[in-house]
Amino acid sequence: MKSITLKSTGETITFVKTGKDTEGAFTEVICTMPAEQEGPPPHIHPLQDEIFEVIEGRLELSAKGKKIILEVGQSFNVTAGTAHTFKNPLDKEIKFRATYKPALDIDYLLVEGFNSLNSQSNPNKPGFQMMVNFDYLLKQIPGQYRFAGAAGAIFTMFAAIARLFIKPKVKSLKDHKASF
Predict the structure, then answer these.
(1) Which of 97, 94, 163 is nearest to 128 (CA)?
(2) In angstroms, what CA-CA distances link 81 with 44, 77, 147, 148, 158?
(3) Most CB contacts within 10 A, which of 54, 93, 96, 110?
């Protein structure tokens, strides 16, 4: 099993099953989040359901305009096209399973996204290189992922400007698949 850790937050994702393992049916990861840590900004998987299941602790989801608290053993299906995010509201580490159906190229987005963030001097302050990297990742997997709300529009505008001056520093989808 391959694991990746986001240095800035300590969040770790371990791939249990990849799309390659399931012939594209799903990707399953176990995510470990440190105390009081927030997940990604609100985002949308237009073509995938994402199913969250708590293994240890408590997970707070924001989806469908609601706050949803999941306890150990509980799960919630964020249907395709639904803006969502999540966080650990506790003062201790939590663990949950996330299953993406169908798999599509979520492993590419997660691995290369974490690698891009890990290469930044300050991943909490998005710089032009990070925007260009994520713009490149999203263009490799058209229609599979987008940022929700105003953040998405702002990201698109700044990434277009940054692309004029900076080249992406992440693997292509083809190179990722060859090495993953």
Answers:
(1) 163
(2) 6, 12, 11, 10, 24
(3) 96
What single DSSP character describes residue 110? Answer: H
What is the pLDDT tens value at each position of the chain, 180 positions in all?
799 999 989 999 999 999 999 999 999 999 999 999 999 989 999 999 999 999 999 999 999 889 999 999 999 999 999 999 999 999 999 999 999 999 999 999 999 999 999 998 877 777 888 889 999 999 999 999 999 987 777 888 888 888 888 999 999 999 999 988
CA distance 97 to 174: 27
Could you tell me if 140 and 105 are in contact, meaning their C-beta atoms sit under 8 angstroms apart? yes
Query: Does residue 52 sit in helix, strand or coil?
Result: strand
Domains of the chain and CATH, by start: 3-101 (2.60.120.10), 106-179 (no CATH)
